[in-house]
Specification:
The chain is built from twelve helices and 17 strands. The chain is α/β, with parallel strands linked by helices. The longest helix has 13 residues. Bound molecules: nicotinamide-adenine-dinucleotide, ligand AHE and zinc ion. The site of nicotinamide-adenine-dinucleotide has 32 residues, from α1.
Length: about 375
């Protein structure tokens, strides 16, 4: 079939809206009509040529929601008409990682996914006879896409696609980092670096679990109002203080119980670790850093009890946990709608990247 898609032909070039060819689902695969997709900073990072796994040409996008249109042979867990969220972190429930119960990082199809291919080592997308790579196993910047069934979370049908798509990455990443990775307890104090589409979800997760002091840190002063809207109690702009770590340690009474990096900046990651309380503070790295960047600190920071952890997709097991997060949204336990600042048609998708880089959007969503 033909489908409309925004194709990344080269790094640092505008996406082009073209009609691409899409092959139908093979065994264990599912054809999805994407109804809405968010634009996450990770898409921008790959498009900007900063991803060591970046492949071009490809169809980016990993934060979608849609409807099952056709299932391939052997598919049993979803059926035509089901509403689904594509998962860049699948959940096969059979691999060593899934069975360990220690991680959400299913390894069943990670190798081919990182090469922009379906599990059988081929691509379903092509343009003028040339193969186009899949992205993070999702490629939600296409009106139709194909995914393995283990990479689909079935969600309730009354959830609007424009909001549910955000659960495919940003909401789950932020709220999940609090609930699954850090396991923040009521009364804790926390610092969140970077109040964008991820950081604000960390903040609402902290509020949901009953954190006491929630400090937001951002270079953009306009983010103060956004942070407060979702539960932030204190705001720090690093430009306004001479030593941001010393300031944070002071206002948190010796350091935070939990800190979260939601910037992808390796200098900030170090600050986040060092703003933790001696003896027990935990710093969670969520931000994705540019290829080639490394983190460092004095080992003494760890010797004296601070803990450095990472969180991918909020530690969520996609097929099990994302339908529950959609329920939390539908039940009013978390908010999504106010964070969707811009809704655009596919033809205007490049504007969404401009808005993100200018710090003018929290989340832009493309509606097909
Ligand atoms: P965003 O652009 O919406 O927000 C980033 C925020 O960080 C902005 O408000 C910006 O002003 C702020 N910022 C930038 N540099 C800063 C600095 N030096 N100090 C303080 N604030 C700073 O991006 P997003 O969509 O929220 O994504 C944030 C990061 O999380 C990105 O690196 C993205 O790739 C990553 N991410 C990771 C996962 C995961 O599973 N680990 C999932 C989604 C996104
Ligand atoms: N490809 C990059 C790493 C990118 C990365 O860390 N991705 C996160 C999700 S970001 C979503 O917006 C993730 O879940 N990683 C786990 C995984 O298996 O990719 C690189 O540095 O090579
Ligand atoms: Zn993302």
């Amino acid at each position: 079939m033909k489908t409309r898609a925004a194709v990344a032909f080269e790094a640092k070039r505008l996406l082009e809206i073209v009609e691409v060819d899409l092959e139908g689902p093979r065994a264990g695969e599912v054809l999805i009509e994407i109804k809405a997709t968010g634009i996450c900073h990770t898409d921008a990072y790959t498009l900007d040529g900063l991803d060591s796994e970046g492949i071009f040409p490809s169809i980016l996008g990993h934060e979608g929601a849609g409807v099952v249109v056709e299932v391939g042979p052997g598919v049993t867990s979803v059926a035509v008409g089901d509403h689904v969220i594509p998962l860049y972190t699948p959940e096969c429930r059979q691999c060593k990682s899934c069975l360990s119960r220690k991680t959400n990082l299913c390894t069943a199809i990670r190798a081919t996914q990182g090469k922009g291919l379906m599990p059988d080592g081929t691509s379903r997308f092509s343009y003028k006879g040339q193969a186009i790579a899949h992205y993070m196993g999702c490629s939600t910047f296409s009106n139709f896409t194909v995914l393995p069934e283990i990479a689909l979370a079935k969600i309730r049908k009354d959830a609007p696609f424009e909001s549910a798509c955000y659960v495919g990455c940003g909401v789950t990443t932020g709220v999940g980092a609090v609930v699954n990775t850090a396991k923040v307890e009521p009364g804790a104090n926390a610092v969140v670096f970077g109040l964008g589409g991820i950081g604000l979800n960390v903040i609402q997760g902290l509020k949901m679990v009953g954190a006491d002091m929630i400090v937001g840190v951002d270079l953009n002063p306009a983010k103060e109002e956004w942070g407060r809207r979702f539960g932030m109690t204190h705001f720090v702009n690093p430009k306004d203080v001479s030593d941001v770590v010393a300031h944070l340690v002071e206002i948190t009474g010796g350091g935070a119980d939990y800190t979260f990096d939601c910037t992808g900046n390796t200098t900030v990651m170090r600050q986040a670790l060092e703003a933790c309380h001696r003896g027990w503070g935990e710093s969670i790295v969520i931000g994705v850093a540019e290829a080639g960047k490394e983190i460092s600190t004095r080992p003494f920071q760890l010797v004296t009890g601070r803990v450095w952890k990472g969180s991918a997709f909020g530690g969520a097991r996609g097929r099990t946990d994302t339908p529950r997060i959609v329920d939390w949204y539908m039940d009013g336990k978390i908010e999504i709608d106010p964070m969707i600042t811009h809704t655009l048609p596919l033809e205007r998708i490049n504007e969404a990247f401009d808005l993100m880089h200018a710090g003018e959007s929290i989340r832009s969503v493309v509606v097909f």
